[in-house]
Fold each of these.
Amino acid sequence: MLTCPTCKAPHVVKYGKTRSGTQNYKCRECGRRFVEHPTKKYISPETWAQIDKL
Ligand SMILES: [Zn+2]
């Protein structure tokens, strides 16, 4: 379930899209707007393990 990254509340609603087409959400608890996926690309645990070795 999608939760607010700030207050962790599950009360989020769709709130339009960014210029790049990413779905925007808004938290109904704290009012913060955020996107479902952060701008950073998802890093798998395997990749993190390699980063730790460097
Ligand atoms: Zn919130």
Amino acid sequence: MIRQIFFPVLLLGVLSACSGARQERRAVAVTIPPVQAWAEELAGGRFDVVCAVPDGGNPESYDLPPSMMARLASCAAYFSCGYLGFERTWLEKSAQNNPQMEVVDLSDGVELMYGTHHHTHAEAEPESDAALPDPHLWCSPRRARLMLRNMYDALCRLDTAGRTLYTENYRRLDARMACLDSTLAARSAAYAGAAFAIYHPTLTYWAADYGLRQLALEPEGKSPSPQHLRQMVDSARRAGVKVVFIQREFDPKQAETFAREAGCRTEIINPLSPEWESEIMRIADALDRK
Ligand SMILES: [Zn+2]
């Protein structure tokens, strides 16, 4: 008799422990799909990862739908890239609404560059643009590794029980990033100092880390005027530019006109792709092509 009672009680205990574990599974938030992919790999299923700006959205001017606001409000932490327009307008509000959410700035300790990027979001212009850093840190594998390290440290702090898993996942992903970094460095050694053109200056850190020169067509975050485009064509010809990169979220027409006049190729790129590693290699291949 005792045994018959004991078994269902034990089973009940196991079931409630399982459902308790499900409830404890928490979520963290990120801004863009490449960082979501890193967070998912590091977290290994111990946290859900919510991405605020979907693939195809522009993280410099994105307006959050109310449904996403509610999801973000339930997150234990927000991993911010640091200086994207969306983060600067939204995170301050959210910190007031959800004070228990920890904001982790992934750009902490990463060397920043100033004066290369125009910030376009109308709500967030308290400082001059020259005083704000270029936000595209994740586009250089060298600086992306430091962002990953910050994310790993934060996950270990948020969930000490997961440290062994996070360490294993961190080492694997960081080794792949280190390999990308050395591949890009080795490849660009052959054309050090070469220039490429790009619509929006997304590859500022890439150019700086691998010894290239970036010519951005977009002046101060605005659509380039015909005169400006003319000057850029002259600079590109002088610099021997072979390729102009166009980000998927921008209208390609002006860059295509530029390419025809400067005599270079166009390449559509998506530095916001969730397939970050293959996108980095695709850009590297495009720079290699003559
Ligand atoms: Zn930008």
Amino acid sequence: MIELLAPAGNLEKLKIAVLYGANAVFIGGKEFSLRSRASNFTLEDIKEGCDFAHKFNAKVHVTTNIIPHNNNLEGLKEYLISLEKCGVDAIICASLYIMNTALKYTNLEVHVSTQDSAANVEAINFYKQIGCKRVVLAREVSLTELKDIRSKTDMDIEVFIHGGMCSSYSGRCMLSNEMSNRDANRGGCAHSCRWNYDLINGDKKINDGNYFSLASRDLCALKYIPDFIDNNITSLKIEGRMKSTHYIATVVNAYRRAIDEYYKYKTIDYEKYDYMIKKAENRLTSIGFYNGDPGVNEHLYINFGEEPSQEYVGDVLDYMDGYMIMEVKNYFTIDDTLEIFSPKEELRNFKITEILNMDNEKVLVCNHPNEIVKIKVPFSVLKYDFVRKL
Ligand code: SF4
């Protein structure tokens, strides 16, 4: 079965990704990883994450994908050996030096990062020849090219299926370095392409009240799942280690259900899963490069901002005697209708009849983020379920 690979910026996100259906997660350690600003994993966290994932037959991949300079090399061998001891299944790297060190001193699977922009079969076979197990294809490869590559190599191939795109060749960009002194290839991308800009022609501002952005739309390749499965692709990657737990649960679960449906019925209810994804996706999406070079519909010329979902109102912490214990994330009131989103169940909803605070006093309005409340529910719920307002 094709692997569904999910991002995890911390231990809680790792657990949620696995519970909501990921076959593997990718995480960043404290060293040698891009996204250095994510709340990256300590070695203890990595060990705990591996133990948890392995209990559910899921794998853990650790990113070691910086483009290292001389002063980034110290301690690499020891770090890779520590990862192996923690139970890590694979590392994702872009540097030949890091690949070579892992292949020489550990039994970790080596996956070639998309940072290497592998877009042709000769490059892929080179990585195979030196001992790498998998290539994460460049996001700039079309579906036609992907099929051609697949027909010419038996290398494990991972492709992106959902998440943020880079306007440059996957991180090969100096915009962030230029605008904010943060190196995109050493984990510091400030997403300067998504900032608000004025558009000037000569000395005339022509953006007419709207700000202009240089960003790409996010990728959503839901409709290509049959092509990926039928062409024996190894893994489908969701991007976004910085995204929220609600986003990860929602997107992972939609793809999990869509993939399972295709294996079972050879068909997918795209509308249903697209609707599910949109409950958490807060940026416009497109099909990226899968249909060839992107056109205007793949860019985000006008920046619409990234408002978090207002429907998502809380996390279930526990269930006791007909009440769910819930951490509030967004505003809701008594008489609202809430929807419970769980890993395995279909969506369930109910009208709120009673809210209590932890002193068992009645509450009418919940508007304090992170406040813990008890809400009467007509069915049982579980920790790691999410609550949305309909
Ligand atoms: S600033 Fe934008 S284009 Fe540049 S590396 Fe970051 S995401 Fe890519």
Amino acid sequence: MNFDRILFGTAGVPNSTPRKNNPIEGVKQIRALDLDCMQLEFAHGVRMKEEVSSSLRRASFELGVPLTSHGPYYINLNAREQDKIDSSVERIIQTAKISDLCGAESMTFHAAFYMKDSPYDVFDLVEKSLNVIEERLGRLDIEIELRPELTGKTSQFGSLQELISLTKSVNSCSPCMDFSHLYARTGKYNSYEEFTGVLTDLKNELGRICLDNMHIHISGISSNSKGDLKHLNLESSSFNWKELIRALKDFDCKGYIICNSPNLEVDAKMLKDYYLSL
Ligand SMILES: [Zn+2]
């Protein structure tokens, strides 16, 4: 997709939507709230009737509210048992199929846990699975960006460097830049200089195209030495969102910002208003 600017939306149907279990109502509510996009959350399973996905695709197109998606939590491409790896691959493919039916062009997921293995071995395994997934999606004629998420816990695969390396080695792969997770995972990356440092690294390693087509997550967050504990509303968190938005604006970044604070649309709107005020 070609973006003029950053689009702002919620992780799932906005809380204020009259019928919260209906994604079509969610898209209408995004429009009513003057937000721009919405992420479909398949966190607890990939289920959607085909007539719902086609109506959703139509609503998204007609109202000009593009969609992204998030795969199930129980994915682990480094599981101990081969059948669990296989079902993780199937879940990613299933998410891609439904996302494609809904017209979403970018999907994110948590790729794996280290399970105390060497990060290098885990990387090889994740890379191998993503190549298999890419090939199978190609045969199904599904074109979608696979965006492994920058994860919040030190036990989870998905550091900034791992995502940069994956993007270089798997064609349809790009990072889902969860800046709140990056902060929770490292205890760093919470200042303007650090944010622009990350954006400079992305640009140098992956090219300008990476900043022209971003998929970002932002929320308030609490953490301990092992990483993230809980998502919070931005105002209750020490996460320096204003400096992040300023850095993204100064680098002329484009793409999606999905807000996954508990108050969803309230923080999404606050992020958007601040961005537009700069
Ligand atoms: Zn996530």
